[in-house]
Design a protein that fits this description.
mainly alpha; about 230 residues; elongated
Length: about 230
């Protein structure tokens, strides 16, 4: 006779603990922090006022460019034979030198203005850069027109009569390449952006809006139910 064999009963596995629910997040706190972040990034009235001040001061500085250009630019000379006016030296590079002098002066003043603006307001800002670019363009035009006005007269007939036959006289200043008017604004913006990228004060990292939040959430690493042992 054989006795019925009672199957071996395996001990019951303890039920796995349920995953803790994530902590509730206050929607009002997150919503309250959003306007503050947007207000920090927005352009304020003070920023616009500073940009306008930069544009005005840099534009007035164009007077210095006109004075220096009228003083340092090489002179082209004409001569009259009593009937017509001719270049005294047809191989002279003074006319090209006038453009080069204007460009070099513009570049130097552009770098100087960018450095002064950066020292005045190290944190930079879009309005300041726009004001610097607009003021530099205006300064180039002011310097150009002022240099023409301060230089020799543009009335060659009157100048030839005043000088006399066979006597050389200075030709009026002129720019053969009007692209040099962009020298000041281009140098000013590039130098200012470079100084801002290298030495502008860095902002502190923003504090988390949800300080109690944990990453990764606890339920991610909760052990799963294991199958019963055989």
């Amino acid at each position: 006779m054989t006795e019925p064999v009672t199957p071996y009963e395996q001990p019951q596995q303890p039920a796995s603990a349920p995953a803790p629910a994530p902590a509730p997040v206050s929607v009002s706190a997150a919503a309250a922090s959003a306007p503050s972040a947007e207000s920090d990034a927005a352009v304020t009235a003070a920023d616009v006022r500073d940009g306008a001040a930069v544009a005005l001061v840099v534009g007035v500085a164009g007077v210095l460019l006109g004075l220096l250009w009228a003083w340092l630019a090489p002179r082209v000379q004409y001569v009259s034979n009593g009937e017509a006016v001719f270049l005294r030296d047809t191989e002279s590079e003074a006319r090209i030198g006038s453009d080069g002098t204007f460009l070099l002066l513009s570049a130097a003043l552009g770098a100087l203005s960018a450095g002064l603006v950066f020292l005045w307001r190290r944190r930079g800002g879009v309005p300041v850069v726009i004001g610097l670019a607009v003021g530099s363009c205006f300064a180039s035009v002011v310097g150009w027109r002022l240099g023409l006005w301060l230089g020799p007269t543009s009335d060659l007939v009157a100048a030839a009569k005043r000088a006399g036959k066979g006597v050389p006289f200075d030709a009026p200043l002129e720019l053969l390449a009007h692209g040099v008017l962009l020298g000041w604004p281009m140098v000013a913006v590039v130098v200012h952006l470079g100084l801002t990228a290298l030495w502008a004060p860095r902002e502190a990292p923003a504090v988390s809006d949800w300080p109690d939040a944990a990453y990764p959430p606890p339920h991610v690493h909760t052990p799963t139910d294991r199958p019963p042992a055989a």
